[in-house]
Design a protein that fits this description.
The chain is built from twelve helices and ten strands. It is α+β, with helices and mostly antiparallel strands.
Length: about 400
């Protein structure tokens, strides 16, 4: 081999090494593109099988003879979480009720059938009590409407360390920015993170409760039927022994919801990048924190963070949006809504009153007033890029 041949060979090896290194960097920086309803990439064969089994159970339609009711909002999980696929949003709007006690504490009215008011009853319950829906809970001081959110990526929110959530709390607004997020707590003192009021601590409890509150399906997590406005279910109305589904079915559905991949945003254009910078500049990211660290359970796909655009804390949104209390949350306090999957929705805010993203921005009051005012003061082109950014989530 000549000296020139040797030099050429060395250059070729170096070039191939640089290309391989560049490819590894690109792979490390690029997240696999998933579609709504896909599982997290990297599942084992057993995890994928349980995910698929859970999807079937999620879409299963119950009947009174298989446990449905006697109070219910839908016959299946998929009936409310259907658009664009199982696990997505729904067009249902339900009503919740709670009470502020004389001592100022919140009563979820659980012994009186609250806080979820079901809009359907089984024929047997109709015949027994002559009702077509659950009556308003006795003692309720307020009711509120709730739209059906999508479930994509909730397993990652379940994996956000508690210390990270609490690090964003500033209940006394010590930094003077007008934003004073605070955590909600469950009845036993655990940190809440799920639901519009951030009351439920874990995704498993959120899923267990949904079976009972939305379908009237008792399960190992919630093994007893609700009362009907405080009155026990009449004898003979509910023929299926409790619990009405077994633990394996519950775990399969939990696996399906937990392993749903977060919705992928649209690819980043220069306009979207400008919109994101403007979104941060207006102060919106003080509550809609772009990225949260996640610590995944052993044996599940490795993820380092989730771009959920939330701090999972309560913020006072002003009297115009106020409805019910829940846990420590006052009527005007709501959890920062995650923005991931925003482009999949057709109505916005907790009750769906906003029909466009811009309308939702303009309805922000309380702690959101400052960011809203800065948005209003922007030039039309700057507002447009923010809205394009939000519409890409």
């Amino acid at each position: 081999m000549t000296h020139d041949d040797l030099r050429t060979s060395v250059f070729e090896v170096a070039a191939r090494s640089l290309l391989a290194a560049a490819a590894l960097v690109m792979l490390a920086g690029c997240e696999a593109r998933t579609q709504p309803g896909d599982p997290l990439p990297g599942l084992t064969k057993a995890q994928r099988a349980l995910f698929d089994e859970g999807r079937q159970a999620f879409e299963r339609e119950f009947e009174p003879e298989t446990g449905l009711g006697p109070l219910f909002n839908a016959p299946s999980c998929g009936e409310c979480h259907e658009d664009p696929v199982a696990g997505g949003v729904g067009d249902e709007v339900e009503r919740h009720a709670t009470a502020v006690r004389p001592d100022g504490m919140c009563d979820a009215l659980e012994t009186k059938g609250g806080p979820v008011l079901q809009v359907h009853v089984t024929p047997a319950l109709h015949d027994a009590l002559g009702i077509d829906e659950e009556p308003v809970t006795p003692g309720a001081t307020a009711t509120g409407l709730r739209t059906t959110p999508d479930l994509f990526g909730l397993g990652l929110l379940d994996a956000v360390p508690e210390v990270d959530i609490l690090a964003y709390a500033d209940p006394d607004d010590r930094d003077g920015d007008g934003v004073s997020g605070r955590p909600n707590r469950f009845a036993d003192g655990r940190l809440g993170r799920f639901g519009r009021k951030a009351f439920v601590p874990t995704l498993r409890e959120f899923n267990d409760g949904a079976f009972l509150f939305e379908q009237g399906i008792t399960n190992p997590g919630v093994p007893r039927e609700e009362s009907i406005a405080g009155v026990p279910v009449p004898p003979g109305v509910d023929p299926v022994p409790d619990p009405e589904i077994d633990r394996h079915t519950l775990e399969a559905v939990d696996a399906f919801v937990r392993l749903l991949a977060p919705p992928m945003p649209a690819r980043r254009s220069l306009t979207i990048q400008r919109g994101e910078r403007a979104f941060r500049t207006t102060g919106c990211a003080a509550c809609h924190v772009p990225k949260l660290r996640v610590v995944m359970p052993a044996g599940t796909p490795v993820r380092r963070h989730v771009e959920a655009w939330t701090d999972l804390l309560l913020h006072d949104m002003g009297t115009d949006l106020a409805d019910i209390c829940l846990g420590l949350a006052t009527p005007s306090e709501f959890r920062t809504a995650p923005l991931m999957g925003l482009r999949l929705r057709t109505s916005f805010l907790h009750d769906g009153r906003a029909k466009t993203i811009e309308e939702a921005v303009r309805l922000h009051g309380g702690e959101g007033s400052g960011a809203r005012a800065r948005f209003d003061a922007l030039k039309p082109r700057d507002k447009k890029v923010i809205l394009e950014f939000l519409g890409s989530r």
